[in-house]
Each structure stands twice: as C-alpha cells, then as structure tokens.
C-alpha cells in the first residue's frame, strides 16, 4: 500500500527528473538540490527584502506609496528588488513542494529519519504566513482581501473576543499600530522562527547541503532577474474599504487556500489544515519502518580513528573517551536512535579489510544484519562460481538498480545496503586475491544517494582522496563506477557490457604480451 | 549531449520555471464576489443592559465591609444577551442571541456578519433587543438602500443613535 502511494509522485515526477537530468547532468540536476535551492531562494528573498525595507514606510498609507515609488520611479533597482522578492518567494514554494514529494517518494522520511520530516512540517506553518503577511503589507486591493479573509479565519478560532475583522470595516477603524504589528511579524518575527526552524530541520544531518551548486545558483538568480525585468511585480489599486475587490491578480503559490475558504466555513478550513498537518506528522509511522539493527562497535577492533564519525551522514556516531585498558584514547559510540543502518561507517573503518587473515573477520564498527565478514564470504563464493573467461564482480546497493538482474556466467552481483558500505580494500581483494578481472560498482544516482553520501564517499575513496582509499597498486582500468537511479537499469547494463568487453580485450592483449615474452 | 544542446536545454528549463512563476503569481485572476454583487457587513460592539438593577447598601452592610470596598451601590455585573436580527427584502439573513463575553458575562457582545447581495434596491430591516427583561431596549430600523456593484455597506450600531448605515 505505502509503496504504491510513494510510487505515485515518483511516476509523476519521473519525466521532470529525467528531462532535467539530461540537460543539467547528475551534478547539477535541480531535483537533487531542492532543499538547498529553497534556502537559496530565501537568501534572495532576504537580500531583496532588506532593500525594499529601507524605503518602506510602515504606515497604512505610506506602505502603498513607498512600494509604488519603488516599482515605478525606481524600477531599475527598487522595482527589480521588489520583483525578485516576490518571485524568489514563489520559487521557494515550488522547490519546497517538490522537496517534500521527492523525500516522501524516495522513502527518506521514516525510521531514524523521521526527525527531518517532522521538523519540516512547522516550516510550512511559517513559510505561508510569511508570504501572506508580505502581500498584506502592500495595502492594495489584494491586501484588503487578504486582511479581511485572514481576519475572518482567525475570528473563527476562540482567540479574540472583539473580531479582528472589525479592524477593516471602514477607513477610520484602521490603525497604524496594527500595521506595525504586521510589519514586525513579516520582517522579524516569522523570519527568525524560520531560520531556527531550518536549523532544527537539519540538526540530525551531517554536512547538510544548504547551498546549491554555484552554477545552479547563478542560473536560478539569472532566471529570477530576467523574470523581474520582463514582468515586474505590480500592486493593485490602493485598498478601499468601501469597495469589495474583484479580478484580483492572485498569487496562487501562497493564496491557494483562500478561495476554498470563500466557498466553505472557516472552521472546516482550519480542520483541513490541521488534519493535513497531522497526517503529514504521522506519515513516518504509517506504517513504522522495520529498522535493521544499528551499527555495532567492537571495542577490541576500534582504534578511535574517527573515520566513521566523519563519514556518518546522520551524525549517529560520536567519539568518546575510553574507559577500558586500550591504549587508544577514544572509541566510536553509535546512537541507535539516529542510526539508519546504511553501513557507511563499516565501509569507512580501516579494520574492515578482507586481507586480514582472521577466520572470523571482525570490524571495529559493523552492521549486524550484513557484516563485513559476510560481504567477504559472499564475494568469494560468488567469484568462485563464475565460469566465463572474463569474471566481473558487481557491487550495488539496495536502493539503486537491482544488480541481481546482472548475474550471469561471468558476472556475480552483490547488493549492499549502501555502496558506501563497501570498504575500498574489497575491490583490491577481488582483483588480486579472488581472481576477478574487473569490479563494477554502482548505486543510487550521484547526488541522490538514498543515504545521502554513500556514492560521494565511494567516489572519493576510490579516487584516493578520502580514507580509507583504494591502493595505487590496483589497475584503475579494471574498476568501473557508474551511478544510476533504479530506473536506469538498461543504461547501466550497457555500461557493464562495454566494461566486460574492455576487460576481454585487456585480457587478450596481456595474454598476447605474455606469449610473445 | 553536446554542450550547446545542454545549454539550450537548461535555458529552456529556466524559461519554463520563470513562465510558471510569472503566470501563477498573478493569474488566473480571482474574484471573491460575483460580478453584480455588493456586500453588506453588519458589525458592531454593544453591551446589553445589566440583568439586575443596582441596590443601595444599608449603613450596617457598609460598616461590615473593609474600608476600601465600601461602595454604596451593589451591582450585579451580569449583562443581558443581545438579540440581533437582520433581514433583506423580508428574508432573514442573520439572527442571533449574542451572549455577553467575559467570565462574569459582563462583557461586550460582538457582531460580524457579511452578506453578499445583488446590486440594486433593497429593503433592509434591523432589530436589536439588549434587555432580557424586555422593558424597552428594543431598536428597530428599516431602510431602502440602493447598492452599487462591489459596494460594501457597513451597518453599525450605537445605543444613542440606533443603527447607522454607511
Ligand atoms: C523551508 C522549508 C525547507 C527547507 C529550506 C528545507 C531544507 C532541507 C535541506 C537543506 C535538507 C538537507 C538535504 C541533504 O543535505 O541531504 C533537507 C532534508 C530533508 N527535508 Fe527539508 N526543507 C524544508 C521543508 C521540508 C518539509 C516541509 C519537509 C517534509 C514535511 C521536509 C522533509 C525533509 C526530509 C525528509 C529530508 C531528508 C532527511 C534525510 O535525508 O534523512 N523538508 N531539507
């Protein structure tokens, strides 16, 4: 049931995802940077907002006048800033909505990862009021509509005895004090909560990607600038409490719920909003994820080097002073509440090397469900069973392409929880010890790792820029890494076939050389 | 994909995003009320009459009280609920018995009700009773109004002048 609910947004977003992948490539695909893009758009909102605020007069009539001044008299800067402010806010809603859908459809919100999901929901309750109060501040006809509609909504709740809507009955019921309160909410109150909210949202992620790639940021800014120049944001006629506005140029990104309100009761509106938020909050429990057992530290094999601490994408590993007799001062400690059982820590542990001649290979930190010694024995058995002249060992992950589909006479595939679970020494081991002709590594699309950083760490370990690294005595031509989404199976198979073909040629070349020698 | 094609594709993607933002931030236009409609807003704040008359305390009663509380009048704070009725062309659009606010039921009663009406001539009939003993305290007002499309007519109330249409 859950799988099919998750599949729906995935299927709907797939064409967008694929189209963007083709033109932006994996590194810059905006779909992999949605959270960071949302933050980037908020930066644009902040900077443009500060500019607009410099000229803004927080009084009922001053507000409209100063915004008009910026829009028309100072169109080349003030007007552009105002438009940037509006369009970046709208863009943030688009990326935010996609961000939620993508995290949901990828299943990255359950188990130990419920926290980011759960703390995302209050952000919605901040972002929308931020936009709505922004439109209110202009005090044009749209603002007048928003003021009355919002007041009527709030009046349905038992908060005020004197209905708030009565502030907007006639021009003399308006007060500058109310306006100052509104300006405070929009300019300081909600933004401060939002900044704290985002910080909290990212608290359990290590190295959260808060900035999009530079080229994506520049492209997005250029897009917003072009739009601001081509279609500058404009105000409606000034608010007139004697006239009910019509034909409002409506910002559907922020104001979509209001027309629903006009058709129904405010209490129903709140019920829908609160019900939807509660449903979202409960989503990680519908049903709860059956969690694999968390990583386990073996004190005898942990020397406190800190690589697992550095590589864990969920800050589940910390280093603590040791209390035993070991000569190492620190030991890794796993917080089971935070551990997603990705195995990246086991892949980072220098003791996870298959060359150790222990009968029972035990690593300093390991996954009870699929320990390093099982990866070693499975690799051995799989390679032993291969019959073809070219033998290739494929390592993949449970969230990318189904690598078992590649099993063949010359190909043995092993699927790990995450490719980052693979200690690079296993590649050397397969090639030098177990007779593999090549090792093919695949996993989630680059930038879209289910466990956030598994493919990045693998790339860096194999390239020798991250510890533990793949040793230089391995023939780089016999190692091939291809990242791809679960739906890229056919494409990756073509890469695998080409790799096998290359290995075949390399083998016959080296046989020829040996024969000549 | 060739670099130039990729750049073209990226530009198109940005252009589509911009088009989405440019369009949905202002369109389609929304009209909260129908084209030929006006709005009548009935809204005021009014305190009902006190439920009980004030009583004069006797000298003995006053002497029994602490010096700072020797108020010669003892008044119950409770107020009457306010009954409001509003009809247009003989059809009742709003009718409530508004309870006084506050823990001691001594607060003001508030009305806020919005009714859309087609523009044109209408007869508005208003009724208010703020005394639960029904000894006076009834206000009635009938008026013929000519509403323009989109006009907002506010009906206020003040015990001195009765209903005010503006
Ligand atoms: C102001 C709005 C938001 C911003 C700026 C934001 C930003 C971010 C960022 C930067 C990340 C880290 C990405 C990474 O490094 O892997 C993230 C992750 C995440 N966000 Fe949001 N987010 C917002 C709202 C939401 C909402 C509303 C939800 C869902 C209700 C949500 C759910 C998640 C989830 C599930 C993750 C992934 C956690 C994981 O990988 O374990 N976010 N967000």
What brief labels describe this structure?
heterodimer; A: 517 residues; alpha/beta; four-stranded parallel beta sheet; 17 helices; 8 strands; 7% strand; B: 166 residues; alpha+beta; Immunoglobulin-like; four-stranded mixed beta sheet; four-stranded antiparallel beta sheet; 2 helices; 17% helix; binds protoporphyrin IX containing FE
Plain-language structure description:
The complex is a heterodimer of chains A (517) and B (166). Chain A has 517 residues and is α/β, with parallel strands linked by helices. Chain A folds into two domains: 259 residues, Cytochrome Bc1 Complex, Chain C; 221 residues, no CATH class. Helix content of chain A is 53%, strand content 7%. In chain A, helix 3 packs across helix 4 and helix 4 packs across helix 8. The mean pLDDT of chain A is 94. Chain B is an alpha+beta fold. Chain B has two domains: 30 residues; 106 residues, Immunoglobulin-like (Sandwich), CATH 2.60.40. Chain B contains two helices and ten strands, in the order H-E-E-H-E-E-E-E-E-E-E-E. A four-stranded mixed sheet of chain B has the order 6-1-9-10, with no helix packed on it. A four-stranded antiparallel sheet of chain B has the order 5-4-7-8, with no helix packed on it. In chain B, a hairpin with a 3-residue loop joins strand 9 and strand 10. The longest helix of chain B has 22 residues. Chain B is elongated, with a radius of gyration of 29 Å. The mean pLDDT of chain B is 90. Classes of the chains: A alpha/beta (517), B alpha+beta (166). The interface between A and B is large, with 50 and 44 residues. Bound molecules: protoporphyrin IX containing FE. Protoporphyrin IX containing FE (HEM) binds next to helix 2, helix 4, helix 5 and helix 7 of chain A.
Unreliable segments of 5+ consecutive residues of chain B: none
Name the chain pair with the biggest interface and residue counts per chain: A-B, 50 and 44 residues
Count all strands of chain B and give the number: 10
CATH class of the largest domain in chain A: Mainly Alpha
Share of helix of chain B, binned: 10-25%
The overall average pLDDT of chain B, rounded, is 90
Distance between the termini of chain A: 64 Å
What is the CATH architecture descriptor of the largest domain in chain B? Sandwich
């Amino acid at each position: 049931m859950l799988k099919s609910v998750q599949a729906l947004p995935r299927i709907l977003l797939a064409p967008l995802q694929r189209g963007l992948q083709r033109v932006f490539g994996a590194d810059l695909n905006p779909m992999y940077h949605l959270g960071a893009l949302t933050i980037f758009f908020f930066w644009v909102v902040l900077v443009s907002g500060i500019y607009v605020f410099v000229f803004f007069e927080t009084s009922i009539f001053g507000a409209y006048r100063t915004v008009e001044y910026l829009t028309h008299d100072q169109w080349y800067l003030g007007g552009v800033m105002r438009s940037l402010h509006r369009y970046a806010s709208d863009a943030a809603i688009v990326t935010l909505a996609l961000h939620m859908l993508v995290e949901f459809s990828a299943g990255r919100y359950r188990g130990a990862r419920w926290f980011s999901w759960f703390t995302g929901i209050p952000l919605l309750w901040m972002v929308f009021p931020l936009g709505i109060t922004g439109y209110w501040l202009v005090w044009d006809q749209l603002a007048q509509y928003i003021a009355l509609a919002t007041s009527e909504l709030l009046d349905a709740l038992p908060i005020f005895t004197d209905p708030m809507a009565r502030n907007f009955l006639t021009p003399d019921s308006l007060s500058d004090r109310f306006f100052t309160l509104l300006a405070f909410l929009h300019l300081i109150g909600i933004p401060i909560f939002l900044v704290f909210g985002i910080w909290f949202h990212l608290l359990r992620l290590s190295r959260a990607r808060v900035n999009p790639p530079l080229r994506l940021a520049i492209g997005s800014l250029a897009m917003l600038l072009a739009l601001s120049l081509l279609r500058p944001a404009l105000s409606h006629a000034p608010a007139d409490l004697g006239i009910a506005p019509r034909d409002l140029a409506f910002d559907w990104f922020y104001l979509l719920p209001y027309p629903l309100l006009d058709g129904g009761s405010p209490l129903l509106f709140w019920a829908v909003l609160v019900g939807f938020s509660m449903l979202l909050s409960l989503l990680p429990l519908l049903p709860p994820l059956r969690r694999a057992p968390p990583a386990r530290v073996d004190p005898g094999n942990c020397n406190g080097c800190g690589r697992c601490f550095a590589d864990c994408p969920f800050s589940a590993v910390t280093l603590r002073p040791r209390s035993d007799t070991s000569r190492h001062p620190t030991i890794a400690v796993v917080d089971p509440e935070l551990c997603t059982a990705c195995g990246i820590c086991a892949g980072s542990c220098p003791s996870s090397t298959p060359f150790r001649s222990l009968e029972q290979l035990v690593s300093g930190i390991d996954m009870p469900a699929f320990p390093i010694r099982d990866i070693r024995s499975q690799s051995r058995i799989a390679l032993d069973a291969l019959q073809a002249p070219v033998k290739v060992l494929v390592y993949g992950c449970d969230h990318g392409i189904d690598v078992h589909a590649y099993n063949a006479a010359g190909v043995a595939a092993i699927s790990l929880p995450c490719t980052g679970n693979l200690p690079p020494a296993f590649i050397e081991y397969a090639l030098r010890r177990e007779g593999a002709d090549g090792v093919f590594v695949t996993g989630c699309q680059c930038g879209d790792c289910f466990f956030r950083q598994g493919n990045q760490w693998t790339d860096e370990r194999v390239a020798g820029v991250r510890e533990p690294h793949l040793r230089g005595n391995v023939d780089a031509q016999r190692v091939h890494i291809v990242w791809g989404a679960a739906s890229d199976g056919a494409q990756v198979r073509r890469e695998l076939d080409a790799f096998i073909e290359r290995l075949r040629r390399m083998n016959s070349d080296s046989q020829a050389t040996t024969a000549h020698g | 994909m060739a670099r130039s094609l990729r750049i073209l594709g990226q530009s198109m993607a940005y252009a589509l995003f911009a088009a989405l933002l440019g369009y949905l931030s202002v369109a389609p236009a929304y009209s909260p009320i129908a084209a030929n409609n006006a709005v009548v807003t009935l809204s005021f704040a009014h305190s009902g009459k006190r439920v009980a008359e004030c009583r004069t305390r006797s000298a003995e009663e006053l002497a029994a009280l602490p010096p700072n509380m020797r108020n010669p009048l003892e008044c119950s704070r409770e107020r009457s609920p306010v009954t409001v009725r509003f009809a247009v062309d003989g059809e009742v659009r709003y009718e409530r018995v508004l309870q006084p606010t506050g823990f001691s039921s001594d607060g003001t009663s508030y009305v806020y009700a919005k009714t859309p009406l087609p523009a044109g001539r209408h007869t508005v009939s208003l009724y208010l009773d703020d005394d639960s003993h029904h000894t006076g305290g009834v206000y009635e007002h009938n008026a013929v109004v000519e509403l323009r499309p989109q006009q907002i007519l506010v009906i206020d109330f003040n015990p001195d002048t009765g209903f005010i249409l503006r």
